[in-house]
Specification:
Strand order of the largest sheet of chain C: 8-9-10-1-11
Strand content of chain C: 15-25%
Number of strands of chain A: 6
Number of helices of chain A: 12
Structural class of chain C: alpha+beta
Structural class of chain A: mainly alpha
Number of strands of chain C: 21
Radius of gyration of chain A: 24 Å
Largest sheet of chain A: 2 strands, antiparallel
Shape of chain C: globular
Strand order of the largest sheet of chain A: 1-2
Number of helices of chain C: 14
Distance between the termini of chain C: 34 Å
Chains: A mainly alpha, B mainly alpha, C alpha+beta
Helix content of chain A: 55-70%
Radius of gyration of chain C: 23 Å
Order of helices and strands of chain A: HHHEEEEHHHEEHHHHHH
Oligomer: heterotrimer
Helix content of chain C: 10-25%
Largest interface: B-C, 46 and 65 residues
Strand content of chain A: 5-15%
C-alpha cells in the first residue's frame, strides 16, 4: 500500500484530519455506523429484554413447561396430534411483544432473547479475535519487516506454514482438539467451554493474513529516504519503529479493523455451526443457526433470524471498511486483502 | 514446508486424550487382550516419532495407510475418489464467479457516475457477508423441502452424481452448490476487480492513452481490464488452490457432496488420524503449489516487474 | 449393545413384546407389513426382483462379520451369513428363539450341559461355489480369536481352549473345544461350564461360519464369501455398499434363512438425516437407517402414516454416573439426579410419547427378569417405591444435593454430537444447574463418545448412553453393564461406565446366571430383585425405553420386524 503523501499540501491540515473529514462526508460510513449501532444496542439490551419482555430464562430448558398466550395456557413443546401423533413441536413465533416473540427452540427457550444474547457473544468474539489478530500481526509484521534477514525468514517461514493451512481447516483442527480438553500452557489455562478459546484460535489463524501485507509495507518503508536518513542519523531502532514506521503502518491496520471483525465473526459462526465454537448453553448466532437446523422444516425462523443478523452486521462492517479505506487512501490497493 | 505441516498436524492430534483408537478399532466391549492385540497391530504402543515416521511412510511411499475408523479402508483411495467431486464443484463455481466478477466488476467501474455502481457494490458486499453454510441450508430448505413438490421438482436429492454416470444428473445435482459457493467469491471478485480497475484508471500510462485520444470505454475494456487481471490471477490462483484442497468444506457438508472437504471434516470429527494427515497434506500441497504458480505468473505478466 | 453406527452390538433387538405398565403399543404397520406373527408368509416368486435402495449417513466400519459390532451391518448379516444356529427370522416375539441354521437340529446336550453336539447340514454352498464343511466350522470359531473379535473374550471364552486362544490369538487352535468329524459331519463343542445363553451366542454374526481360508485378520472392505441369499459385491465406506443375489443359495430352513425378494440391495452413504427423509419421501430411496430428525416427525407422521412402522424395543437410554469421582461418588448426589430427571422431557426430546416411555428400572419392560418398580418419582422412595414413573421431584433433588455436600461442584456432561443426544445433554445441563451444580456440556463425535466415556482416565462424571439388548437374558443388561468384571480402570474398553462394583450383588448376579441353567423362572425373579437392589444405590439414572421407527418408501411391501434384527431387509418387496 502506498502511504499517504499528497503532492500538494495547500492546507495546513494533518493527513489524519483530512481522512476523518472524508470519512464523515462519506454516506457509507453513516449508513454502516447506524446499522452497527442498532445491532450492538439490540444485543446489549439482551438482559433487559429477557427480564422485561420474554420473562423466561433463555438459558434454562423448559421442555415440559407451559406458557400463557392470549390467556390460554399452552405447552411450550407440543405433542403432535395428527396422524400417528409422532413428534413434538416447539411453539412458533407469536409476533407479539412478549414471551416467545420468535417462538421457542427445541429446549423450549425464547428464541428472540437468545438471539440478542447470542449477538453479544458473536460480536464479542469478533471484536476480540480481530483485536488479537491485529495486535499480534502488527507486532510480527513490523519485526519481520524491520529486522535482519534471519529473523525475517524464520518468521516468514512460520507464517507460511500457518497460512498453508486453509483457515477453516486449521481453526477446525485446533477447535476439535482443544475443545475436548481445554488448553493448558504454563500459567494460561482455558477451560473447554471458555469463550477465550474461539477468540484465541480465530485470532491466531488470521495472523498471517494481516502480517504479510504489513511486513511487505515495512520492508518497502525501510528503503524510503526518510527512514534511511533516520538510520544514518544514528537513531535507535525502537525510536525509528515508533516514530517513522508505525505511524505509516497504522492506516493499513485501521483499514483492516472492520474487515477482520467481519471475518472473525463469520469464522466464529461457522465454528459454532460445526459445534466447535461457542458451547452450550451459551448462545452465539452460529449456535442458534445450528439449533435452527433441527427445526428447519417446522420453525425455519430459528435458522433464518440469526443468519440475517450476521449478514446485516457483516454488510455494515464491510461498508464501513470500504469507507475507511477510501478515506485513508483513495488509491489504496491492498494486495489480496479483500 | 510440507514436512513442517505434517509435523504440525501430527502434533496437534496425537496428544489428545480420549482418542486412543485401539478400543474403537477393537469394537464395543472388547476385552483387554483384544485391545492389546489391536495396539500391537497398529503400532499404537510405539513412541511418537516412530509412529510418525511409520505413518508418513505408509502415506507417501507405500500408500497403503488404512483408516482407524473404517478398518481396512485405505486412505489414498478414499482421497482420490473424493477428488472428482470437489474438482467438479470448484471448477463450476469458479467459472460462475469469474464471469460474474468480471462482468459486474467491469460494469461497476465503468458506470461509476450512475446508480449501477453502488447497486453492484451492494451485491458485492452482501455476497461476502453471507455465511455460506447458512445460505446452503436456506437453499436446501427451499429446493428440497418447501417448494420441492412444486417449483423445484427437478432438483435431485443431495449428493454428487459422477459425470460418467449421468451428465445431466451431474449438472443438476451441482447446480445449487455451484451457485451457493460462487456467491461468496463473486462478491469478493466484484469488489476486487472494480477497485483494481478504478485505481488503474488513474495510473499514468492510462492517462497517456487518454491524452492520445482513446475513448473511455476502450480504455476500460482494453487496458484497464487486462491490467486488473494481474491481481485477479494471483488472487484466483490462491482461492482456487485452497478450494481444490478442501476449503469448500462447508458447502460440501451442507449439500452432501462427498468431496475432499467433507472427507476432511469427517476425518476431523472422528479423529481418524491417517485420514486427517492425508487430507490436510493434500490441502497444504495444493496451497503451496498454487502459491508457487501464482508467484511465477505474477512475475511473468506484470509488465512493471518485467520492465524493471 | 449400542445403536450407534460404529459400536452397536447388533445382537438382539429381540424384544419381548409383552405389554407393560407403559404405553408400549406398536402402531402404523400400514400396508407395508407382511407375515403373520410367528410364521413368514410363503415365498411369492412373483414379487421377487428389483433393487432395494437403503440410505444412511455413513458406513459402519468393517464388513467382517466376526468383527463388526454395529446394528447397521448386523441387519445386513442376517441375509448374508449363517451360523450353526440362528434367531428365527420372523415378525413378532418368536424372533427371540433360536432355530437350527447350518446345523440340522438344535444341539444335543450332554455332560451336564457342557458338551453340545451338532450335525452339519449337507449341500450348503458358499457364494464362491464351495461346499460348507465341518472344517470351515472349526476354522471359523478359531478365527473369532485370531481376528480379535470384540466378543471373543466376553462371549466365547467358555469354549475349552479359549483361554490359550485369547492369550495367543495368532496361533489359535481349538482342538479340545471344537471337535469335528468330516466323515459323520458332526461338530462337538465343549464348554468349561454349562451356559444357558450359549445357543444365543452361537446365533450371533460373530459366530458366523466362514470359509476356512478367510483371512486371519480383519477383512475390512473385502467381502468374505457368504452362505445366505445375498453376497457382498462391493463396499466403499464413503459411497455405497452393494449386495447381489448369492447364485449358490437354496433355501434349506425358511425359519432360519428365508429366500430374499430384491435382486439387488444398494446401501448409499453420505446423506444427512434430513436429506434421507427427503429421499424416501421423493421415492429416491426405500428406507433410511438414521433416526428421523425431530422436525420431520410430525410431518411424515401426518402425511405418510402408511409408510411408518413403530415397534417397542428392549432397550434403554440412561445416564451412567461415575461412582468413583466427585460429585457422583456420593449416593445422595446420584439419587438427586434420579429424582430431578424429568423423563417426560427426555421422551419429548426423543420425539414424543409415541416413540418412547419413561423408565425407572434397569431391565426394560417385557425383558426376562423385569420387575415393575420406580423408586425415584414424586412421592416415592427407595423404601416405598411406586410401580411406575409419574413426575420429577426437583425439591427433593435439591435437598439431597445439599445433604450430600456436593452443591456447587462442577459437572461435565459428555454426549454424542448428534442432534438428539445434544438436546438431551442441554436439557440435563439445565436440570443439573437447577438442582445446584455448575454443569457444562461436552459434545463429542458419536464415533468416539462411546469409548471415551468408558475410560476412567477421561474423568467423565456423567454421560448419556444407550443399551440395546444383545440377546434376551437379564445378564446382558445387569451383569454386562454393572458387574465388577466389566470395570477396567484406565481402559477404553470398560463397559461398566458407572464403575459400579458391589461385591455382594455381584455374587448374586453370578449365582443367578448359574441358576438360569436349571431354573430360568426362578433366576428371572432373582434378577428382578437384583435390579431393585442395584437401583437403590442409583449407579445410573435410567431415562426411557425407546421405540424404533422404520420409514419406508411408498412402493415397499412385506415389512417384517424381528425383535432380534429389527427390519428383515431381505424380505422387503420392491417390485
Amino acid at each position: 500500500m502506498t502511504t499517504h503523501e499528497p503532492a500538494f499540501d495547500l492546507s495546513s491540515e494533518s493527513p489524519s484530519k483530512i481522512a476523518f473529514r472524508t470519512l464523515v462526508r462519506d454516506r457509507r460510513s453513516w449508513v454502516a455506523s447506524t446499522m452497527l449501532i442498532i445491532v450492538v444496542a439490540l444485543t446489549l439490551s439482551a438482559p433487559l429484554y429477557a427480564s422485561l419482555i420474554s420473562k423466561t430464562d433463555p438459558f434454562v430448558s423448559t421442555i415440559n413447561g407451559t406458557v400463557v398466550l392470549d390467556g390460554v395456557e399452552v405447552q411450550v413443546l407440543q405433542q403432535s396430534t395428527e396422524g400417528l401423533k409422532l413428534g413434538v413441536n416447539p411453539i412458533g413465533p407469536t409476533w407479539k411483544i412478549g414471551p416467545y416473540f420468535l417462538g421457542a427452540d427445541n429446549q423450549g427457550r425464547d428464541v428472540a432473547a437468545r438471539l440478542l444474547y447470542g449477538g453479544t457473544n458473536t460480536l464479542l468474539i469478533g471484536f476480540a479475535a480481530a483485536a488479537l489478530t491485529l495486535i499480534i500481526a502488527t507486532l510480527v509484521g513490523v519485526i519481520a519487516g524491520y529486522s535482519g534477514k534471519i529473523i525475517d525468514s524464520v518468521i516468514s517461514r512460520i507464517l507460511d506454514v500457518i497460512w498453508a493451512f486453509p483457515v477453516y481447516l486449521l481453526s477446525i483442527s485446533l477447535s476439535v482438539v482443544l475443545l475436548t480438553s481445554g488448553f493448558k500452557w504454563g500459567p494460561i489455562s482455558l477451560e473447554a467451554g471458555s469463550l477465550y478459546l474461539p477468540i484465541f484460535i480465530i485470532g491466531l489463524v488470521y495472523v498471517p493474513y494481516v502480517a504479510r501485507p504489513i511486513r511487505g509495507q515495512v520492508l518497502a518503508l525501510r528503503e524510503r529516504e526518510f527512514v534511511k536518513a533516520a538510520i544514518g542519523g544514528g537513531a535507535k531502532n525502537s525510536t525509528i519503529i515508533f516514530r517513522e514506521i508505525l505511524p505509516n503502518v497504522i492506516p493499513s491496520v485501521l483499514v483492516f479493523i472492520p474487515l477482520m471483525v467481519s471475518l472473525a465473526m463469520l469464522t466464529e459462526s461457522a465454528l459454532s455451526f460445526l459445534s466447535i465454537g461457542v458451547q452450550a448453553p451459551d448462545a452465539s448466532w452460529g449456535t442458534i443457526i445450528k439449533d435452527g437446523l433441527g427445526l428447519l422444516y417446522t420453525r425455519p425462523i430459528v435458522a433464518l433470524a440469526p443468519g440475517l443478523f450476521i449478514v446485516i452486521t457483516a454488510v455494515a462492517l464491510n461498508l464501513l471498511g470500504d469507507a475507511v479505506r477510501d478515506a485513508l487512501d483513495p488509491k489504496a490497493r491492498l494486495r489480496g486483502a479483500f | 514446508m510440507l514436512v513442517s505441516i505434517s509435523i504440525l498436524v501430527f502434533l496437534i492430534f496425537f496428544a489428545t486424550p480420549g482418542v486412543d483408537p485401539a478400543a474403537r478399532i477393537a469394537g464395543r466391549n472388547a476385552d483387554q487382550l483384544t485391545l492389546q492385540q489391536v495396539r500391537a497391530t497398529f503400532d499404537l504402543d510405539k513412541p511418537i516419532h516412530i509412529r510418525y515416521v511409520s505413518m508418513m511412510k505408509h502415506l507417501f511411499i507405500d500408500r497403503d495407510l488404512t483408516s482407524y475408523v473404517n478398518r481396512g479402508a485405505e486412505v489414498w483411495p478414499q482421497l482420490t475418489q473424493a477428488i472428482p467431486a470437489t474438482l467438479s464443484l470448484v471448477f463450476g463455481a469458479a467459472l460462475i464467479w469469474l464471469v460474474l466478477g468480471l462482468a459486474l466488476g467491469i460494469t461497476a467501474a465503468g458506470a461509476r457516475k450512475s446508480w449501477i455502481d453502488p447497486a453492484i457494490g451492494i451485491i458485492g458486499i452482501v455476497g461476502v457477508s453471507l455465511p455460506v453454510y447458512w445460505l446452503g441450508e436456506v437453499v436446501n430448505l427451499i429446493t428440497q423441502g418447501r417448494l420441492h413438490a412444486t417449483l423445484f421438482r427437478w432438483v435431485p436429492p443431495l449428493g454428487y452424481v459422477p459425470f460418467t454416470q449421468s451428465p445431466s444428473g451431474w449438472f443438476l445435482a451441482l447446480l445449487f452448490p455451484w451457485l451457493t459457493l460462487s456467491i461468496l467469491y463473486a462478491g469478493i471478485y466484484i469488489r476486487v476487480i472494480r477497485s483494481e480497475i478504478v485505481g488503474l484508471m488513474q495510473e499514468d500510462y492510462i492517462k497517456t492513452e487518454r491524452a492520445k485520444g482513446a475513448g473511455e470505454k476502450r480504455i476500460l475494456i482494453k487496458h484497464a481490464s487486462r491490467m486488473s487481471l494481474i491481481t485477479v490471477v494471483s488472487l484466483f490462483g490462491l482461492d482456487f488452490g485452497a478450494l481444490v484442497g478442501g476449503s469448500a468444506l462447508l458447502t460440501e457438508v451442507v449439500f452432501g457432496i462427498q468431496g475432499v472437504g467433507r472427507l476432511t471434516f469427517t476425518a476431523l470429527q472422528n479423529f481418524d488420524l491417517p485420514l486427517i494427515m492425508a487430507t490436510v497434506m493434500y490441502a497444504a500441497f495444493f496451497i503451496v503449489i498454487a502459491n508457487a504458480i501464482v508467484d511465477l505468473v505474477y512475475a511473468w505478466i506484470d509488465p512493471r516487474v518485467r520492465r524493471g | 449393545m449400542r445403536r450407534s453406527r460404529t459400536l452397536v452390538s447388533l445382537i438382539a433387538l429381540s424384544f419381548v413384546l409383552s405389554a407393560c405398565g407403559s404405553s408400549s403399543s406398536d402402531s402404523g404397520s400400514g400396508s407395508n407389513a407382511g407375515g403373520q406373527d410367528g410364521v413368514l408368509a410363503p415365498y411369492d416368486a412373483a414379487k421377487a426382483g428389483g433393487t432395494l435402495t437403503l440410505v444412511a449417513k455413513g458406513a459402519a466400519g468393517t464388513l467382517d462379520p466376526h468383527i463388526n459390532y454395529t446394528l447397521q451391518f448386523w441387519q445386513l448379516y442376517q441375509a448374508t451369513y449363517d451360523g450353526l444356529l440362528a434367531f428365527r427370522k420372523v415378525d413378532g416375539p418368536k424372533s427371540f428363539e433360536t432355530v437350527p441354521d447350518l446345523a440340522e437340529a438344535l444341539p444335543e446336550l450332554s455332560d451336564g450341559g457342557k458338551t453340545l453336539t451338532f450335525t452339519l447340514r449337507k449341500g450348503i454352498k458358499f457364494s464362491d461355489g464351495r461346499e460348507v464343511t465341518v472344517n470351515d466350522v472349526k476354522a471359523s470359531y478359531e478365527r473369532i480369536f485370531k481376528v480379535s473379535s470384540p466378543t471373543a473374550g466376553g462371549f466365547y471364552n467358555g469354549i475349552v481352549g479359549a483361554d490359550a486362544c485369547l492369550a495367543k490369538p495368532a496361533t489359535c487352535k481349538l482342538d479340545q473345544g471344537v471337535i469335528v468329524d468330516p466323515a459323520t459331519n458332526k461338530i462337538v463343542i465343549k464348554l468349561t461350564a454349562a451356559d444357558a445363553t450359549i445357543n444365543y451366542k452361537l446365533a450371533l454374526p460373530h459366530a458366523s461360519i466362514l470359509p476356512a481360508d478367510a483371512p486371519s485378520k480383519d477383512a475390512g472392505t473385502t467381502p468374505i464369501p457368504t452362505t445366505g441369499p445375498y453376497m457382498f459385491a462391493s463396499y466403499d465406506p464413503n459411497k455405497e455398499l452393494k449386495m447381489v443375489r448369492n447364485p449358490n443359495f437354496k433355501e434349506w430352513n425358511r425359519e432360519a434363512q428365508p429366500a430374499g425378494y430384491p435382486d439387488e440391495i444398494v446401501y448409499q452413504f453420505g446423506l444427512t438425516a434430513e436429506a434421507q427423509v427427503n429421499a424416501v419421501k421423493n421415492a429416491q430411496a426405500d428406507w433410511m437407517y438414521d433416526p428421523i430428525p425431530a422436525d420431520r416427525l410430525s410431518e411424515i407422521g401426518t402425511e405418510l402414516p402408511n409408510q411408518i412402522n413403530v415397534h417397542t424395543l428392549t432397550a434403554m437410554w440412561y445416564l451412567p454416573m461415575n461412582n468413583n469421582l466427585a460429585p457422583f461418588n456420593n449416593v445422595k448426589a446420584r439419587q438427586a439426579v434420579n429424582y430431578a430427571l424429568d423423563r417426560n422431557a427426555m421422551v419429548k426430546i426423543f420425539g414424543g410419547e409415541q416413540l418412547a416411555s419413561p423408565a425407572c428400572t434397569f431391565l426394560p419392560p417385557g425383558f426376562p427378569g423385569h420387575k415393575d418398580f420406580c423408586q425415584y418419582t414424586a412421592g416415592a422412595s427407595v423404601e416405598s417405591p411406586a410401580t411406575s414413573w409419574a413426575a420429577p421431584d426437583i425439591e427433593k433433588a435439591k435437598q439431597l444435593v445439599k445433604e450430600s455436600g456436593t452443591a456447587g461442584q462442577k459437572v461435565g456432561i459428555v454426549v454424542s454430537d448428534d442432534e438428539v443426544n445434544k438436546q438431551m445433554g442441554e436439557y440435563i445441563q439445565s436440570v443439573l444447574n437447577q438442582i445446584g451444580y455448575k454443569a457444562t456440556l461436552k459434545p463429542i463425535s458419536g464415533n468416539i463418545q462411546f469409548t471415551y466415556i468408558q475410560n476412567t482416565k477421561n474423568k467423565v462424571q456423567i454421560s448419556v448412553s444407550q443399551w440395546y439388548q444383545d440377546f434376551p437374558a437379564a445378564m446382558d443388561f445387569l451383569y454386562i453393564l454393572l458387574g465388577c468384571e466389566s470395570f477396567t480402570p484406565g481402559s477404553d474398553s470398560s463397559i461398566n461406565m458407572a464403575g459400579y462394583c458391589n461385591k455382594a450383588l455381584n455374587k448374586r448376579m453370578i449365582d443367578a446366571m448359574a441358576l438360569g441353567v436349571t431354573d430360568q423362572a426362578a433366576a428371572d425373579k432373582e434378577w428382578g430383585d437384583i435390579d431393585e437392589a442395584i437401583m437403590a444405590e442409583a449407579p445410573v439414572a435410567v431415562a426411557f425405553t425407546p421405540k424404533q421407527i422404520d420409514f419406508l418408501g411408498a412402493r415397499v411391501k412385506n415389512y417384517n420386524f424381528s425383535k432380534q434384527f429389527y427390519m428383515l431387509v431381505s424380505q422387503l418387496q420392491v417390485k
